[in-house]
């Protein structure tokens, strides 16, 4: 028996009235759909029977907040028709299968556009829809490895540091998919013509490194880790350990910030080392020794109220309690889960966390009624009668 459907999620944010179908997956696809839902779109997630692929309780999967869920077995005889009924009434569809899978299931771009020529069909993959690796399995770390971005991160005498799955899946993947489908939606509303958006993590992550490639071409960036202004090679842009095992982050790039930084450390005599690369090792040793002399909280107090561009490195549980983030409401509590609040912010169409994570199949009847799909309503009635 299904649980009661969650309240209808449209009516909040700048995308109010936009309908999105998300074919369930893990990683960048759900995050992209969450962002659209946070912005006010009515996102219906099509879950598969048997539960989600991510090994956490669906009630805690924040990437499914502000959505609704129906369960459809795409391998059942009537499964593709259920999805095509949704696609016919949607503005955007998002899928994250390997190339060709959606077509084999009967819900590819041609199938959907035959029912809804205005549909924006967003495809989220790691390698893209074509190329020698298109059919290969992969994960964030492999995608960013090939783009050159993973090789930039970390100390020069250690293996590259893995930035969780933030750089590839979410920055190079989800955010580019959202930009793409919204741009295509603008085009569809102007022309009446939908299109396919091929969002590949390798493409987006490479695009993120545009400035670095410009610096590399100009001779202002060395193609190795820990040797450059922004990769930890510079002693006044990086992190330092404190006496209690904590860390402070330093970004004192400009001259006036650098001077304030040295003043707060009591190292004013090292001011000339800023532009002298031959003295960077000496500068780093002195800065490291100073930070090691006090705790993270003590150094936080020293730099409080200054323009030295220094901040404590906080943990995930500490971050929501920082006074600045608390004052802005950067994090919010909903349903007992502390989570990042929707971003960015809008003056006329504010966003909010309206509903918790959509539980698989919980909204089948409500979606069927709201979207005018009687078969979904009937499916829900049959399930409730079991």
Please tag this protein with its features:
single chain; 386 residues; alpha/beta; 14% strand; elongated; disordered N terminus
Strand-helix topology:
Layout (H helix, E strand, L loop, with lengths): L18 E5 L4 H11 L3 E6 L19 E5 L7 H10 L3 E4 L5 H5 L3 H7 L4 E6 L14 H7 L19 H26 L3 E6 H8 L1 H8 L19 E5 L5 E5 L3 H11 L14 H12 L4 H8 L6 E3 L10 H6 L2 E4 L2 E4 L23 H8 L2 H12 L1
Parallel strand pairs: 1-2, 1-4, 2-3, 4-5, 5-6
Antiparallel strand pairs: 7-8, 8-9, 10-11
Helix pairs in contact: 1-6, 2-4, 5-6, 5-7, 6-7, 13-14
Question: Would you kindly provide a written description of the structure presented here, covering whatever features stand out?
Answer:
The chain has helices at 28-38, 79-88, 101-105, 109-115, 140-146, 166-191, 201-208, 210-217, 255-265, 280-291, 296-303, 323-328, 364-371, 374-385, and strands at residues 19-23, 42-47, 67-71, 92-95, 120-125, 195-200, 237-241, 247-251, 310-312, 331-334, 337-340. It has 386 residues and is of the alpha/beta class. The strands form 3 sheets. Strands 3-2-1-4-5-6 form a 6-stranded parallel beta sheet, sandwiched between helices. Strands 7-8-9 form a 3-stranded antiparallel beta sheet, covered by helices on one side. It has a two-stranded antiparallel sheet with strand order 10-11. Strand 7 (237-241) and strand 8 form a beta hairpin. The radius of gyration is 25 Å and the shape is elongated. The model is unreliable at 1-11 (pLDDT under 50).
């Amino acid at each position: 028996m299904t649980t009661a459907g969650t309240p209808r999620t449209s009516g909040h944010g700048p995308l109010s009235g936009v309908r999105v179908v998300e074919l369930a997956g893990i990683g960048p696809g759900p995050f992209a759909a969450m962002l659209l839902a946070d912005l006010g779109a009515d996102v219906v997630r099509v879950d598969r029977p048997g539960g989600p692929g991510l090994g956490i309780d669906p009630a805690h999967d924040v990437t499914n907040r502000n959505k609704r869920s129906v369960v459809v077995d795409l391998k059942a005889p009537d499964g593709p028709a259920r999805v095509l009924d949704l696609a016919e009434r949607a503005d955007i569809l998002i899928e994250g299968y390997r190339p060709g899978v959606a077509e084999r299931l009967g819900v590819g771009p041609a199938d959907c556009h035959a029912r809804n020529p205005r549909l924006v069909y967003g495809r989220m993959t790691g390698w893209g829809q074509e190329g020698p690796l298109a059919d290969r399995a992969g994960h964030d770390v492999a995608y960013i490895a090939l783009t050159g971005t993973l090789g930039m991160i970390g100390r020069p005498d250690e293996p590259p540091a893995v930035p969780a799955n933030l750089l590839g899946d979410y920055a190079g993947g989800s955010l580019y998919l959202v930009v793409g489908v919204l741009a295509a939606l603008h085009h569809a509303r102007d022309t009446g013509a939908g299109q396919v958006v091929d969002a590949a993590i390798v493409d987006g992550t490479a695009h993120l490194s545009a400035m670095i490639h410009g610096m590399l071409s100009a001779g202002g960036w060395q193609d190795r880790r820990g040797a450059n202004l922004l990769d930890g090679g510079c002693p006044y842009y990086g992190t330092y350990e404190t006496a209690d095992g904590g860390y402070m982050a330093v970004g004192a790039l400009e001259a006036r910030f650098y001077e304030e930084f040295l003043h707060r450390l009591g190292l004013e005599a090292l001011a000339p080392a800023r532009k002298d690369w031959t003295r960077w090792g000496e500068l780093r040793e002195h800065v490291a020794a100073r930070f090691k002399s006090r705790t993270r909280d003590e150094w936080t107090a020293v730099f409080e109220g200054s323009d030295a561009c220094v901040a404590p490195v906080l943990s995930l549980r500490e971050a929501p309690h920082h006074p600045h983030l608390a004052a802005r409401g950067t994090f919010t509590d909903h349903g007992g889960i502390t989570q990042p609040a929707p971003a960015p912010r809008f003056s006329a169409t504010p966003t909010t966390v309206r509903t918790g994570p959509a539980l698989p199949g919980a909204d089948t009847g409500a979606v069927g009624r709201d979207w005018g799909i009687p078969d979904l309503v009937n499916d829900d009635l049959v399930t409730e009668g079991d």
